[in-house]
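Support request, please re-run this one:
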Amino acid sequence: ALPRRRDLDGMAVPVHFEPKHQNSVKNNILSGITLLPWLKLLYRRRSNIEWGRYWIRLLFITALSIFNTFLSLFDWALYGSAIRDAKLNDKPVFILGHPRTGTTLLHNLISLDDTFAVSNTFKVGFPSSFLTMERFSFALSGIIDKTRPMDNMALSFETPQEDELAVNVLSAGISPYMPLVFMRDEPSFRPYFTFKEALDTDRTAWTDSFLFFLRKLTVRYGNTRRLLLKSPVHTARVSLLLQLFPDAQFIYIHRNPYEVFQSAVHMADAYYWYCYLSTPTDEQILDFILNQYEVLFEAYMADRSLIPEGNLIEVSFADLEASPTAMIERIYSHFGWALTPSTRERIAAHCGTIRNFKKNSFAKISPEARAIVARRWRKSFEAFGYEI
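Re-run finished. Output below.
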């Protein structure tokens, strides 16, 4: 049986998401999918697709999937044996935290250290062909905006990006990212957060796709560079990630839950409409936001004790925002990493470029929304000392 949505205790939905971008083909999380996974996805979800409303998006992704399949042949022919034989660095670093808690800023800063292997927007967007085609990425630059739709942070194919985006297309949608396409069917994707209650075949498909992508990154960078991986959904997978990488290190970042909620609502309204293949209701989007937070928090709290002593540090967005350099120094000191002068310079330069960055300003959270967040996310307020 599928997980059931939680009700709002009879309350009216306190937020509204305005439909938009119906005919847009930009910024879509499925742009890098190849033909066979795309056809599998269409077949599995055929009853949940609004074929008439989203025919332009469907046609574009279909055409792109054929193109991607052709391009993937070059990676297979030129690097197939190297990918199969690649030995992964066994000490990756995972940045954890709910979406909108500062994981992107932290990822961007640490990725300036060239001792790490980092996935960028092109690699995760086109995981089947990036080894061969990344040098020609300029030809596809028109399919993404120059800034992220939800916060106006700079976006390019070189920007560090979430590895789960690659796994999502490689696995034909075995990912909790798929509600961004099929929000009306969101409960069916919930097992893919932890995989503890997922089908064995789905867990295997996700794991194989994840390790395949990491092997491709290893071919690109070599295995002397540690993998630096950031996908908020990994926050629910500490147990699974430790099974794959017992010596992995973890950085968990948290933020005031009310701020997270406001930012998540804004992101859903500003970005998700680029990806939908069926139009959700306000209640469905809101329940996704609320449930995702609960799943990530509860799974992390249940499994964080599994992380070996010294391999986890927990930080706050407020401290990171107040002094990014000091936070990076704290993290490096905790893990005993070497912070070289050149890395310090790059971090200082990056901080200089974002110093005057104007964050989104949100309307004051309504009393109704505040009450729902306080009730549903109460445990996280208490765990990290935020005032309810």
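The beta strands are 93-96, 116-118, 226-230, 249-254, 312-316. The first strand starts at residue 93 and ends at 96.
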